[in-house]
């Protein structure tokens, strides 16, 4: 109402200042006022006078106070000698440790590896033909292989080596590739394969972790009959939990991580406690710390499973890749600080299960059963109820670790132009914590598809882990390249030989699952890989065609069109969205769009690029007008916590330029939807490319381009991400000007 009164008062003053002398002029003014009165039914997108909201100022003030408090506290510690100064340097760098983020790290990072004790030893017993065939050499051999696999793969490779190699705090195979891609184009192949395998495993992890945990409800005495009468009940409960889990992703990993972190702390404490309770009856299992037991049993005739045993051992290391991928979410220092507690708890639990197996090898209650789960059986019935509840929670947390890792991987792939640009949200205060709605929906649907296809964890586990071995192998190759070029060539060779040999054994052993479900994992990996290859190849072909113009080349034509009154206005303002961040040049796609078919004459043309800054609440823009009042190149920078809806900012920029005199005032003759007294109608234009039928490309290149355009269509339109949908944006298709075939000349008859 206040805006309407101001508008009316302004109109009245304007009318008094320029009172018409004739009746015709007076009637014309009255008609104009009646037409413009319709503005009260529309609202132009507006921005506030302040650059920060009240809530944002509170967040920044709180963060500033916390930083000052931390600095003051560290200054006091720094005065206490070398240890204090070391702690000061630690807390000032990337290895910073905070209690809150340590809790988040527990919830976000360790879920997957924390569920391994649920099924690793059960799979070992099944592979050996039952508990009766598992004697002391077998148990000590298995425990030795598990301990040294966790030590070498998780601790040495990932925690001590891989996590020291980060890309501005980000981890994962794509971040690693970004550091070393200058050393050879061939490095893209292992990076793509490993990333695709990791994303495929992100689909299987929620299905196998949650379903295996929920199936533990069947072991409770009071629920056995219920699940026996309703065989689909387990599947239904799993589906409900998965739907709830994926629906919570938009809240961010910080809020989820704090809740999950407390549960994980209880879970690993519980693992250590039940392990110690069983170890107290046979401390001799610690002889398995000698690696000779593992090597001897692996190659002995007593090992019924043969080399396939390594596939079971590998289950104890699943989740190691998540430590590296989620490093950007929680910080490297917090993982360093929490990993010793995690490893000790895992070792105590595995060795406690080993002690129980030795004590119950000839127990008549388990004779005749091939599959026995020592994790649940080594507990009393009362404790088992607690274990089932905690294992369900741990299964959910295991899924969370892979989901957050998938978000990070897709974000990295987008930066490499291996995947389409998707809408990314940052629901938490930390830049590394992100949420991608499209990826979340795809993962949810794919996980439910896996459950519908395999039904239970026994069949899902046949496909589980195979893809992750591929990721580990490719990560080893890329890490070796980095170490080699970091002037540690002997270390690079040793690293490659040792870890490639171990992980190749894991891969060969996991391939035994191929016909029992591993085919699905590899098929899913291949599908994701094809998406990345198609997008990468299609983008490379488009870049070969893309050109930029200097202002001196395009301004004469634009000036002539701007002054040509024979051509009606297409719109007062034509706004093009471009991904080009440079404001001193002009995209040829926009130039051809203006002059294509019927020239698009306008009072002003705008080329706008939108960037996301590393600060949460940045709101700034820069403008290049090339010395004109009709051609503007705008660069908008928004913080990662700021809404990407740009129409209000476009109106602000235009009004700012009107006030500064750089843009002539655009008087509106008729009402429009986004009514603004100083700005005429705005038409938003998006440009997409299409392959010409006669383009000189190979069948593979044509397939890559067509696949890219199909993926782009499925990924969604930028018009929705930038809040343009209500303003009827125009999407133009332009031909991709590659070299074309010249058909033979026609003969006139």
Automatic annotation (TrEMBL):
Example GO molecular function: potassium ion transmembrane transporter activity
InterPro entries with a match to the protein in the record: K+_transporter, K_trans_C, K_trans_N, Kup
A Pfam family assignment: K_trans_C
Keyword Transport: yes
Chain ranges passing through the membrane: 97-119, 139-162, 183-210, 230-248, 260-279, 304-324, 336-358, 386-413, 434-454, 460-483, 490-511, 517-541
Catalytic activity reported: K(+)(in) + H(+)(in) = K(+)(out) + H(+)(out)
GO cellular component, one term: plasma membrane
All copies of domain K+ potassium transporter integral membrane, residue ranges: 103-548
Keyword Nucleotide-binding tagged: no
Domain of life: Bacteria
Keywords assigned: Cell membrane, Ion transport, Membrane, Potassium, Potassium transport, Symport, Transmembrane, Transmembrane helix, Transport
Amino acid composition bias (Basic and acidic residues), ranges on this chain: 14-29
Membrane-topology annotation of the record: Multi-pass membrane protein
Primary location class: membrane
Region annotation Disordered: where it falls in the sequence: 1-29
Domain K+ potassium transporter C-terminal: 589-726
Coiled-coil residue windows: none
Subcellular compartments: Cell membrane; Membrane
PANTHER family, per database record: LOW AFFINITY POTASSIUM TRANSPORT SYSTEM PROTEIN KUP, OSMOTIC STRESS POTASSIUM TRANSPORTER
Function: Transport of potassium into the cell. Likely operates as a K(+):H(+) symporter.
Family statement: Belongs to the HAK/KUP transporter (TC 2.A.72) family.
Name of the protein in question: Probable potassium transport system protein Kup
Species, as recorded: Pseudoscardovia radai
Lineage, opening ranks: Bacteria, Bacillati, Actinomycetota, Actinomycetes, Bifidobacteriales
Gene that produces this protein: kup
């Amino acid at each position: 109402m206040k805006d309407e009164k101001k508008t009316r008062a302004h109109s009245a003053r304007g009318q008094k200042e320029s009172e018409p002398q004739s009746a015709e002029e007076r009637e014309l003014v009255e008609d104009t006022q009646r037409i413009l009165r319709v503005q009260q039914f529309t609202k132009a997108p507006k921005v506030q006078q302040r650059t920060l909201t009240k809530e944002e100022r509170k967040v920044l003030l709180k963060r500033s106070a916390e930083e000052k408090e931390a600095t003051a506290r560290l200054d006091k510690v720094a005065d206490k000698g070398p240890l204090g100064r070391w702690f000061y340097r630690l807390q000032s760098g990337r290895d910073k440790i905070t209690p809150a983020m340590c809790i988040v790290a527990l919830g976000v990072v360790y879920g997957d590896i924390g569920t391994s004790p649920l099924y690793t030893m059960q799979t070992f017993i099944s592979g050996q033909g039952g508990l009766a065939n598992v004697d002391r050499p077998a148990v000590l051999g298995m425990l030795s292989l598990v301990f040294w696999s966790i030590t070498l793969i998780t601790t040495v490779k990932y925690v001590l080596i891989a996590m020291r190699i980060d890309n501005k705090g980000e981890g994962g195979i794509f971040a690693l590739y970004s550091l070393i891609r200058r050393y050879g184009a061939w490095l893209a192949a292992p990076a793509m394969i490993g990333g695709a395998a990791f994303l495929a495993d992100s689909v299987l992890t929620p299905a196998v972790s949650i379903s295996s945990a929920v199936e533990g409800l069947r072991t409770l005495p009071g629920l056995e009959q219920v699940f026996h009468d309703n065989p689909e009940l387990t599947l239904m409960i799993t589906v409900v939990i998965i739907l709830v889990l994926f629906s919570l992703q938009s809240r961010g990993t910080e809020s989820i991580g704090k809740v999950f972190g407390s549960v994980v702390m209880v879970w690993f404490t519980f693992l250590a406690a039940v392990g110690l309770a069983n170890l107290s009856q046979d401390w001799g299992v610690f002889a398995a710390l000698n690696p000779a037991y593992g090597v001897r049993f692996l190659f002995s005739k007593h090992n019924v499973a043969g080399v396939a045993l390594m596939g079971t051992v590998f289950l104890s290391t699943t989740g190691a890749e998540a430590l590296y991928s989620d490093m950007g979410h929680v910080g490297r220092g917090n993982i360093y600080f929490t990993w010793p507690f995690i490893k000790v708890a895992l070792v105590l639990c595995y060795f406690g299960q080993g002690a129980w197996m030795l004590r119950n090898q000839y127990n008549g209650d388990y004779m005749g059963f091939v599959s026995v789960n020592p994790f649940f059986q080594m507990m009393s019935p009362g404790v088992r109820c607690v274990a089932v509840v905690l294992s369900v929670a741990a299964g959910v947390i295991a899924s969370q670790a892979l989901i957050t890792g998938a978000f990070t991987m897709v974000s990295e792939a987008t930066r490499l132009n291996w995947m389409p640009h998707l809408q990314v949200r940052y629901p938490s205060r930390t830049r590394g914590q992100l949420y991608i709605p499209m990826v979340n929906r795809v993962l949810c649907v794919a996980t439910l598809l896996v459950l519908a296809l395999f039904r239970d964890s026994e069949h899902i586990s046949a496909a589980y882990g195979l893809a992750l071995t591929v990721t580990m192998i490719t990560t080893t190759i890329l890490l070796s390249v980095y170490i080699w070029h970091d002037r540690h060539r002997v270390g690079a060779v040793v690293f490659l030989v040792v870890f490639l040999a171990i992980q190749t054994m894991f891969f060969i052993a996991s391939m035994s699952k191929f016909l029992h479900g591993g085919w699905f994992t590899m098929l899913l990996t291949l599908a994701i890989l094809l998406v990345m290859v198609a997008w990468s190849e299609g983008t490379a072909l488009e870049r070969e065609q893309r050109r930029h113009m200097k202002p001196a080349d395009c301004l004469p034509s634009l000036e002539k069109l701007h002054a040509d009154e024979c051509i009606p206005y297409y719109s007062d303002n034509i706004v093009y969205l471009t991904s080009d961040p440079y404001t001193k040049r002009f995209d040829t796609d926009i130039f051809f769009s203006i002059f294509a078919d019927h020239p698009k004459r306008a009072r002003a043309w705008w080329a706008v690029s939108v960037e996301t800054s590393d600060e949460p609440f940045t709101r700034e823009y820069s403008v290049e007008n090339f010395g004109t009042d009709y051609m503007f190149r705008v660069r908008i920078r928004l913080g990662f916590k700021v809404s990407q809806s740009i129409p209000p900012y476009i109106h602000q920029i235009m009004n700012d330029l009107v006030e500064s005199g750089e843009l002539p005032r655009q008087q509106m003759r008729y009402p429009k939807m986004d009514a603004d007294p100083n700005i005429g109608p705005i038409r938003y234009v998006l440009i997409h490319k299409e392959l010409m039928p006669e383009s000189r490309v190979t069948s593979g290149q044509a397939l890559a381009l067509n696949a890219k355009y199909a993926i782009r269509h499925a990924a969604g339109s930028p018009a929705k991400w930038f809040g343009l949908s209500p303003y009827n944006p125009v999407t133009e298709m332009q031909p991709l000007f590659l070299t074309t075939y010249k058909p033979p000349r026609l003969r006139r008859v």
